[in-house]
Amino acid sequence: MEFTKGHGTGNDFVILPDPDGRLELTADLVAALCDRRRGIGADGVLRVVRAAKHPDAVDLAGDAEWFMDYWNSDGSFAEMCGNGARVFVRYLVSTGLAEVPGGGATLPIATRAGVVRAVVGDGTVAVQMRLPRVYDASAATLGPLTVPGAVVDCGNPHLVCALPAGLELAGLDLTRAPGFDPVVFPSGVNVEFTVPAEPVPGADLRVAMRVHERGSAETLSCGTGACAVAAVALRDAGRDGGVVAVELPGGRLTVTLDGTTCWLAGPAVLVATGEVDPTALRP
Ligand SMILES: N[C@@H](CCC[C@H](N)C(=O)O)C(=O)O
């Protein structure tokens, strides 16, 4: 089975080319591929399949030729993956499966949360994401700590929790999943912990975060998480829009919100291509 490995600010993916939807991808195979000891190792799998060839995509693809069939490392599906979309686009363009659109046009990509649109730079890929919807309040627990947070829908569910003054991101133990209210999040949630950071040139606000992802544990970066964090930071600053620099353990993502659109930008890199024998995984 052919694969490529790629990442966006350290959020890493096994990319499986399957243009005609012939691959028998199962939750077990995804988990085995993502196993960091016995497999290739990744936070998730991106299957590259023509939208017309995947039952989940045919009705929602619009003008998108390609469907990002995203799976978390535990073999569960997610509706959306922001870094995954950026790496997926880097793969399409690098392999010639899609061309960088000219004349200011964007490249449409189908996802389970609808079509997103990408602009490709030299090292960076920017994707116009679904507008984050901040719509409720809840809380996360980490051991004895309860941290209130904002509930955000980015196509997938997020809980953005600002750490109380005096607590540092580095001091959090995210080796275990934070607790959350299953009534608010019946399908699980991605939990972001944030602290404000000093602004940088070109950004209106700057926030540092760590994330525990549903289905993938702690990751070095989360694109939809960065969008959720940016939306909450702008709301808390009393702003309708602006540019937010989001610092993650794996690097910086830039989120630009204007009340109607949300752009997520950052590096997207392919690092290796090879073949894997599925029968050799997890013996
Ligand atoms: N890392 C991703 C989000 C992946 C999906 C998430 N774990 C979920 O289950 O919703 C990103 O970059 O957005």
TrEMBL record:
InterPro entries per UniProt:
DAP_epimerase_AS, DAP_epimerase_DapF
Going by the record, the broad EC class of this enzyme is isomerase
Where is this protein found? Cytoplasm
Tell me which Gene3D superfamilies the record gives.
Diaminopimelate Epimerase, Chain A, domain 1
One matching Pfam family: DAP_epimerase
Could you say which residues are annotated as the site Could be important to modulate the pK values of the two catalytic cysteine residues? 158, 213
Please give the superkingdom of this protein's source: Bacteria
Question: Pathway involvement?
Answer: Amino-acid biosynthesis; L-lysine biosynthesis via DAP pathway; DL-2,6-diaminopimelate from LL-2,6-diaminopimelate: step 1/1
- Taking the first listed entry, what is the main subcellular location of this protein, grouped into a coarse class? cytoplasm
Which keywords label this protein? Answer: Amino-acid biosynthesis, Cytoplasm, Isomerase, Lysine biosynthesis
E.C. designation(s) = 5.1.1.7
Single annotated GO MF: diaminopimelate epimerase activity
Active site: residue positions: 81 (proton donor), 81, 222 (proton acceptor)
What reaction is this protein's catalytic activity?
Answer: (2S,6S)-2,6-diaminopimelate = meso-2,6-diaminopimelate
> Which positions does UniProt annotate for substrate binding?
11, 72, 82-83, 156, 190, 213-214, 223-224
Quaternary state and interactors: Homodimer.
Query: Briefly, what is this protein's role?
Result: Catalyzes the stereoinversion of LL-2,6-diaminopimelate (L,L-DAP) to meso-diaminopimelate (meso-DAP), a precursor of L-lysine and an essential component of the bacterial peptidoglycan.
Family under the similarity heading:
Belongs to the diaminopimelate epimerase family.
Q: Which PANTHER family match?
A: DIAMINOPIMELATE EPIMERASE, DIAMINOPIMELATE EPIMERASE, CHLOROPLASTIC
- Can you name this protein? Diaminopimelate epimerase
Q: Source species, please?
A: Micromonospora echinofusca
Q: Which gene encodes it?
A: dapF
